[in-house]
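request received
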Amino acid sequence: MKTVMADRRWIKEHPDLGTGPVPTDTCTSPELFELERERIFRRTWLNLGREEDLPEPGSYVVRELAVANASVLLVRGKDRKVRAFHNICVHRGNRLVDGEKGVCKGRFVCRFHSWAYDTSGQLTWVSDEANFYDLDKGVLGLKPIAADIWEANWKVILDAQNEVYHLPFLHITYPDFCPMNEHKFSRIQKFTRFGRHTVYSVELNTDHKMKPVESIAINANPRGGQVHPSMIGWFDFYTVFPNFCMLFLAGTYVTYNIWPLAVDRSIWEVSMYHPATEKPSERFAQEYSRCLLRDLLQEDASNHEAIQASLMSGALSHFQLQDEEIQIRHFHKEVRRHIFGEENGAAAIGNNRDAAELRLK
Amino acid sequence: MNTLLPNGFSDLEQFAEWALPTSTDRNRKRRASSMDAINAFYNAMRPRLEEILAYLDQFSLQEMPQDAQRLLFLSLSLAEVTIAVELFHEPRVTGGCDPERFVVAREITP
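response:
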């Protein structure tokens, strides 16, 4: 077994993360939410989809990014390059493309005054153009947003990562999901930081007791018992700052895009990916793992809401985090660093024990 | 409704109401059923599961006779209720959120 069972091991590797409690204000304050919007979500790379969402030249997807107050048009050009634009006609700001997705055979035409753009964002037609004054179509294309294809380079994403929200709930329903110490407390195998991103890995617990149908389902998955060579553990959980997570398991992976709507509301997009199969028994195995994960996540979702409701009461000013929650410590430190700047952000999660007092109203 | 299953599996035709084509419908059926009904379905299917999967593997998912596809849907419903039987011991996720708030964005067919 590669997992080290000793207590307080991660903080020795990451002493800069401190041991003090972590403030809860970023989860409750509308003012800090606005700062997150400005300083995190409008400034960092965000995962908006997979390359397959744009299969052919002209394919487009519209994503409403409430957290960035933006409607984003993702489109594959005739040159096959994927580009992202603000979904706004530059004439007077009308929303350019309605609908969620489609294939643009010719041009994107604004229904307001018929201005038209090609799939590379170039403004190609202005109705009554001669009646404008100094209009230069060449410099007036759709407003671009930096975009690239992440999944095409998924190994590059190994440079980025983390988070652990769902592990505690897995302990409840799947008590022997991961290796445990002699007190039956779980221990992760490895925790690694890549700048703002993290990954934690869990080793396969060979003592896991399988139930009858579960066992048949696991055995029907031809990749079920394997660990991909590029994986660290049996289960790797990457958090790509700020809001994208990737969970790699044998023969499958799952992504979360967590989209803030308000300080206390989010959309949680869960995508489960399985190898394409024509084989019914593999389909059964995949269905089992999907049902299992969905139910575990429903347990999780219930927890999240209970926590949020508690936090909004204002009774709890800080989270108490232990060594196995170091992923969360790192994540909150990064959030604060982005909001408050390098020094102030770090100071907020230092070793200051004074901050440990619970402000009970 | 045609409830016929392939030769050798006709004893499972009494559970034809579980042969539902979408995961959303299968999940709703599970939640609307009593634990007795779920256990009866699970207990009838479980001992036959390996035989069922071996039978189904003669076909590809895209080209399957109707009766085999019904058997496939039954097995997918078994995957659904297994979580209720083997984990939660009740139809719903114990302490879970309102399951209707998990909206399936893309069904896998079949």
